[in-house]
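Both lines are retained for reference:
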Amino acid sequence: MQLEGASILIAGAGGLGSLLAEQLTDRGANVTIASRSGGHVDAPGVTRVQADLRLPSECERAVDVAVEAHGRLDGVIHAAGVVAFGNFDETNVDTIEDLFMTNTFLPIFLTQAALDHIDEGGIVMTISGVVAEQPMAGMAAYSASKAALAAFSTAVRRELRRRKITVIDARPGHTETRLADHPIAGTAPAFKPGHDPKAVVARLIEAIEADETDLPASAF
């Protein structure tokens, strides 16, 4: 994909979302970033949308803002996510619902809204993470929400081949985005030092430019 002049919508303004916005604009892309906070991205020229993307109507509004701001939509990157820790038998229903609404349903809803505008040559990128390959004890519901996202990406990739839209699923290992410092439940275990988020984002953008479709944990 040629990023110069491309219109990319990013869901999530956290560690990876902010870095993606910065690196994509450095390559000449027109970026819209949507999040519940509206984002605090330093990159100039980024269009910000405050939206709760767990709601289909808010996904449609975010897509409309991106199209209005930049004339079209060439791709969507799902960088929003929440995490929870603890044994599954101690995980309450509200936590499970929040994990699946943010990590699974949000990207499904936003992809559906975006596909009304993305044409041949466009991209959809999900970041399911290493737990989609290696589900972790103490993170059962989180692992399940990410594995479901990876399955969704695989199926949609097959559906969109005829439209020549590339669907990329990325599964990096633990990355130092500080997401684990702000779980919606439980306390993070003592992780080994993780990937440099800037390096992870650079690899994601490399995959977009090279039309790769699958980035397992071993690719990072």
User: Anything to note?
Assistant: The radius of gyration is 16 Å. The mean pLDDT is 96.
